[in-house]
Amino acid sequence: MALVHLAALYHTALRLTRNRAEAEDVVQEAFLRAFRSFHRFNPGTNCRAWLFTIMRNVFLNRVRTQGREVLETEMGGLDHAEVTVDAHVDRNPEEQFLQTMLHGDVDRALTTLPLAFREAVMLVDIEGLTYREVAEVVGCPIGTVMSRLSRGRALLRRALGRFAREHGYVKEEE
Amino acid sequence: MNCSEVRARLHAYVDGELTVSEITDVDGHCMECRQCAALARAEREFRQLLRRQPREGAPPELRARIVRRVRREAAVAKGRRWLLLPAVAAAAAVVVMVLLPARTPPPLVADLVDKHIAYAQIERPAELASTDPREVAEWFQSRAGMRVTVPDYSPSGIHLAGARLAEAHERKAAYLLYEKGRTLLSVFMVPVSAGEAALPGRRVSYRDHNYVAYEQKGFRTVSWSDGQAVYGLVSMLDYDALLECADRLRAERARQTRL
After folding, report:
1. Under a CB-based contact definition with an 8 Å cutoff, are residues A28 and B66 in contact?
2. Can you name the CATH fold of B102-258?
3. Is the dihedral of CA B253, B254, B258, B259 positive or negative?
C-alpha cells in the first residue's frame, strides 16, 4: 500500500521544493500525517492520491508560512487569464530538438512554470496519475486539470525550445 | 469529428483519458488527416520525453527516519489509544516495508548477494549443519582458525541452520545460514584487507550506528565494517529485521572483543 509510494512522493517533493533537505522534510511530515489519520483512510479508495494530497498540503503550508509563492493568488489569476500560448500554433519544425534535450533541461524548464501548471504536468506526465487522481489531489474539477495540463505542456515546450536555442541544439532563425 | 474537435481532445487522447468511442473517432480522423496525425504523434513523443525523466530515489536515511518517527508515535499512541492499535500497527508495518531505491551496491556487497543466491539454490548450503551457536563458533576456530561471532536470533524466530567457509573477493569468509520459516538469511564476515577503509555507499543510521543498505536482485542487504571485517546480511526479510539482526551481531561482537 503506502509503502510503494515513498519514491514517487520523494521525487515529486524534490521537483516541488527543488531542495533535497526540504523534500525530505515534506515527505517525512506527509507520512507522519498519513499515519496519524490512517484510521480515517478508507481502504477502498485511492491510497496514492490520498498520500499525494497530504504531501501537497504539507508543501503548501510550508510555502505559506515561508511567505514565498502563494498558490491561490497565482492560480486564481492564471486559470481565468488568457494565457497566450496555443499548444498547436506554438509548435514548429524545431520539435526535433526534443530528441536532443538533456534530462536536466526538462527539470530546469519545469521550474519556470507557475506552480499550478508545473504540478499538473509533473503529476500526469512524470508520475503517471490519471486526470481524476490529479483532480482529487489538487482539489479542482477534471476540466481544470485538463486546461492546466494543456497550458502547462505548451509552456514547457516553449521553455525547452528556448533552452534548445540557447544551447545551440537548434539555430536561432530556422 | 473535425480538426478542431480532435485538437481540443488531443491531450486527453494521448493520455488515454477518452472514452472508447471518442478514441475510435480520433483514430478515424487521424487516418485521413495527416496534420492531426502529426500533432498526435508529436504530443505522444513529448509525453514520452517527460516520462523518461530520471527519478531520484528516496535516500535510505529518510526511510529509516520515517520508520523511527512512526514507531515513536506508535509507542505513544499505544499508551494513549489502545483501541486504535491495529490501525497503528498496520500503518507502522506499511511504512517499515517501504522499498529502498535500486542502486548499484559496492562490489563486495554485490558479491555477497550472488553468494546468497548460489547457496540458496544448492541442496545443502551448510558444510556444518548445526543449530548451536557455540558449536558453529568452535567449528570455525578449529577448521580455519577464525574467531567468528555467531549471534543467536532465535528469540526473533530466526534460527541458525549451519555454516560454511565461503569466499568473497578472493578472501576466505565466514558464512552463517539462518532461516525464518522458509526465508533464508545469510550472514557473511569477510576480513578487511590492508588499505580498505570504511565500506562505501549510502548510509542508514540505526540505533546510533551506520549501515550501508542496498537492494540488489530482489534481496535486501545491510552491511558495515568494524575495521577488522566487513559484515554483510543478505535476505528477503524486511529492513527492520535485518537492521535488528545487524545491531545484535554488532553488540555481540563488541562484547566478545572486550572479553
Report:
1. yes
2. Phosphorylase Kinase; domain 1 (3.30.200)
3. negative
The grid coordinates listed for A21 are 533537505
Domain boundaries, chain B: 3-51, 60-95, 102-258
Phi, psi (degrees; rounded to nearest 5) at B175: -130, 125
Question: What DSSP line would sit under A120-157, residue for residue?
Answer: HHIIIIIT---HHHHHHHHTS-HHHHHHHHHHHHHHHH
Please check whether residue B103 touches A, CB under 8 A.
Answer: no
Would you state the pLDDT for residue A3? 57
Q: Please tell me whether the interface predicted TM-score (ipTM) of this complex is above 0.90.
A: no
Q: Which chain A residue is nearest to residue B36, measuring alpha carbons?
A: A88
pLDDT at residue A24, rounded to an integer: 92
Residue ranges of B 23-82 with Cβ closer than 8 A to chain A = 39, 42-43, 45-47, 49-59, 62-63, 65-66, 69-70, 73-74
Give the pLDDT of residue A67: 61
Q: Which of residues 77-106 of A touch B (CB under 8 A)?
A: 87-88, 91, 95, 98, 101, 103, 106
> Alpha-carbon distance A20 to A59, whole Å?
13
**Low-confidence residues in chain A, pLDDT < 70:** 1-4, 39-45, 66-103, 169-174
What are the Cα distances from residue A134, in Å, to B159, B196, B218? 47, 50, 31
Contact: A126, B55; criterion CB under 8 Å:
yes
Three-class secondary structure of residue B106 per DSSP: coil
How far is residue A79's CA from residue A116's CA, in Å, rounded to a whole number? Answer: 9
Q: Are A33 and A54 in contact (CB under 8 A)?
A: yes
pLDDT in tens, B230-257: 999 999 888 888 999 999 999 999 888 8
Question: Tens of pLDDT along A105-143?
Answer: 788 888 888 888 999 999 998 888 889 889 989 888 999
Cell output for B65: 527516519
Q: Phi/psi zone of residue B207: left (φ > 0), alpha (ψ -120 to 50 degrees), beta?
A: left
The alpha carbon of residue B173 and the mean position of all alpha carbons in its chain are separated, in whole angstroms, by: 22
B13 vs B206: CA distance, rounded Å: 48
Looking up cell 481540443 gives B8
Q: Domains, chain A, ranges and CATH?
A: 2-68 (1.10.1740.10), 73-167 (1.10.10.10)
Pick out chain B residues at pLDDT < 70: 77-103, 123, 194-198
